[in-house]
């Protein structure tokens, strides 16, 4: 499926993800949220807390996609280096943002907990625009087409949903699934021919599963044209019936 809709990529930053200590819980939320806005989520990368790798990844992604989102590395500890790396990628100085400082001062007022480490969370590349954090105050930021967010899922979700007015989408991709007990090997050639017939207007993917001693296959169709999507789903069902299947067509992913 090809169109001119805006595109997006995610850069997940953190040694803890690559070591297996922490499982990423943000990618699926981001992909679905952007998809509902008509933004095509095209790529996700994971990099360690290494300056050169973060800078290289940011520059590669921001040149290729309409929007780039990052998660992780904007906390108060020494290994939180995302802000510095973004500044280096854009070739601008890292500054202490007055409004970010004000928010932190208000949040920690009377606690005696606002130290230099926490004030590091107010460091933003020159020209950066704050991203609100209604959960724990310390903001993310946007510079150019790059949106820098926290890695903690609850905070990330609040930051991302608060960006709605800054994001311009396109036609929303709709999904139908055709589910049957026909194994992939039985319809692979016919499915290939059908995909060639319908062309790029519909993406068709095959996703097998095995449970309770039975095979089930979901053929997932995605398109922006609702009528074309419905017609193609019926063609898939006809193909499966010709192989002895009893396919069921459902909206979405059939979960």
Structure at a glance:
This protein is of the alpha/beta class and 255 residues long. 37% of the residues lie in helices and 26% in strands. It folds into 2 domains: 7-166, 3-Layer(aba) Sandwich (Molybdenum Cofactor Biosythetic Enzyme, Chain A); 174-251, 2-Layer Sandwich (Alpha-Beta Plaits), CATH 3.30.70.
Describe it.
This protein is α/β, with parallel strands linked by helices and 255 residues long. The chain has two domains: 7-166, MoaB/Mog-like domain (Molybdenum Cofactor Biosythetic Enzyme, Chain A); 174-251, 2-Layer Sandwich (Alpha-Beta Plaits). 37% of the residues lie in helices and 26% in strands. It contains nine helices and twelve strands. The protein has helices at residues 15-19, 27-36, 51-64, 82-90, 98-108, 116-119, 153-161, 184-198, 226-242; strands at residues 7-13, 40-47, 67-71, 94-96, 123-125, 129-131, 140-143, 146-149, 174-180, 203-211, 214-223, 248-251. Strands 2-1-3-8-7-6 form a six-stranded mixed sheet, sandwiched between helices. A four-stranded antiparallel sheet has the order 10-11-9-12, covered by helices on one side. A hairpin with an 8-residue loop joins strand 6 and strand 7 (140-143). Helix 3 (51-64) crosses helix 4 and helix 8 runs antiparallel to helix 9. The longest helix is centred in the last third of the chain and has 17 residues, at 226-242. The protein is elongated. The mean pLDDT is 96.
């Amino acid at each position: 499926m090809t169109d001119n809709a805006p595109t997006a990529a995610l850069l997940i930053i953190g040694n803890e993800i690559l070591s297996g200590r922490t499982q990423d819980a943000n990618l699926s939320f981001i992909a679905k949220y952007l998809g509902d806005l008509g933004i095509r989520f095209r790529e996700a990368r994971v990099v360690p807390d290494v300056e050169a790798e973060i800078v290289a990844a940011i520059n590669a992604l921001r040149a290729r996609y309409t929007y780039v989102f990052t998660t992780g590395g904007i906390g108060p500890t020494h290994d939180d280096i995302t802000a510095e790396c973004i500044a280096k990628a854009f070739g601008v100085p890292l500054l202490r943002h007055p409004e970010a400082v004000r928010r932190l001062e208000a949040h920690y007022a009377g606690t005696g907990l606002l130290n230099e480490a926490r004030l590091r969370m107010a460091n933003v590349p020159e020209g950066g625009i704050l991203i609100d954090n209604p959960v724990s105050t310390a903001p993310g930021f946007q510079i150019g087409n790059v949106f820098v967010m926290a890695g903690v899922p609850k905070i990330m979700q609040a930051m991302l949903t608060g960006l709605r007015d800054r994001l311009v989408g396109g036609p929303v991709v709709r999904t139908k699934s055709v589910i049957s007990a026909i194994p992939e090997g039985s319809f692979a050639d016919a499915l290939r021919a059908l995909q060639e017939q319908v062309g790029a207007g519909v993406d068709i993917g095959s996703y097998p599963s095995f449970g309770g001693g039975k095979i089930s296959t979901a053929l997932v169709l995605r398109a922006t044209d609702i009528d074309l999507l419905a017609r193609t789903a019926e063609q898939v069902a006809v193909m499966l019936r010709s192989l002895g299947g009893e396919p069921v067509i459902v909206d979405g992913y059939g979960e």
